[in-house]
Amino acid sequence: MIYDVQNETMPRDELEQLQLKRLQYLVEKVYYNVPFYRQKFSESGIKPEHIKTLDDVKYLPFTEKQDLRNNYPFGLFAVPKENVVRVHASSGTTGKATVVGYTQRDVNNWAKLMARSFVAAGVTRSDIIHNAYGYGLFTGGLGAHYGAEILGATIVPISGGGTKRQVMLMRDFGPTVLCCTPSYSLYLYETAIASGIDVRDLKLKIGIFGAEPWTDEMRNEIQNKLNLRALNIYGLSEIMGPGVAMECITAQEDMHIWEDHFLVEIIDPATGENLPLGEVGELVITTLTKEAQPLIRYRTRDITRINPIPCKCGRTHYRIERIKGRSDDMLIIRGVNVFPSQIESILLETEGLAPHYQLIVDREGAMDTLEVQVEVDEKLFSDEIKHLQRLEKKIQANIKEFLGVTVKISLVEPRTIERTAGKAKRVIDRRPK
Ligand code: DLL
Question: Spelled out in words, what is the top-level CATH class assigned to the domain 331-429?
Fold first, then answer.
């Protein structure tokens, strides 16, 4: 099923024409309405009339997270404040929060794109959606909420936390769709088991998981445990919130990025140069329809590639690959680049481990060190110490072989790594600042 057949299956030449028209309109709008962009354009000698083809987007300046912070809170609005009906903000673990504003039309478009995403995942109006994304300034909860309502599905706005109660309500209400972070889905699973509920008796069919990096191995783990199809959803508050890109259930591989609303590029994060279609690099997004706070060439820091191969679902929008990590999450351990997701893949392929881990980065002298703390499963935990030591050695050897870096492995007891209702904290950086 396709929610918006006309837009989702538009022939690519028509789609690109639409993108160009929207880009030209947008560039003119920000030039005349947002002093920040007017100044940036002037600095690089760009005038709206210079944008003649889609390719010309590369002459426009980038927007970075820091630009949002510098203009905190409302400095990038392109409409009068009275036209803004909602704001969200990202918590900002590093520095000031970044704020985003929406007009009524922005909120409506977002709901439609979320409805589109739900339908791509196989959700219909007869589904009951347990929405455990946090409600509030975080975009996850309300984003999924409005999308589900305009689709006509039944939404349970449970938000994050109160995990025991969540599993009780899941048993009683019989939701068929679960929305939360991938890590929280495993916490719900554990809590269900501890409460004597067999998740296989629940009615869950589909999981819409995102907001944090996760691997294919993690997907397998979740699908087996929760007995559902786990689909990947991508988004970021600066651009809109959840529903920027979504995997379809037909291919269950890579996420359609809704190109009638977002223009995407892949750049080399070090040089800022555009990379050829299909290469891995940093995703850059220009919002084509946002009214309140449009962004030009926003550097997401997310590392992925564009998959231009037509999808068997019939949608013509290109897909982006599962996010490999954020360029700012990449660890450099003794000169070797390591993404937490690469470690996750290796851990989850190892028998006897539970899918809960944390990476501790520290410094000894001039060297960065990495310790991988990972939980063992119950069965193994009661095993003899020498078995555990052997397992530690095995994981260490696998990481050395695949990533070329020596790390310390610490197997820890089941349920000792902190669980959260939102984004899991995978990396703890203890390096002196
Ligand atoms: O996490 C929006 C969202 C809510 C997406 C619910 C999906 C589901 P922010 O808090 O602004 O917004 O964080 C955005 O999270 O730049 C990525 O680094 C990461 N991220 C989001 N989705 C995925 C995903 C929401 N599917 C940042 N895979 C983004 C990997 C993801 N990383």
Answer: alpha beta
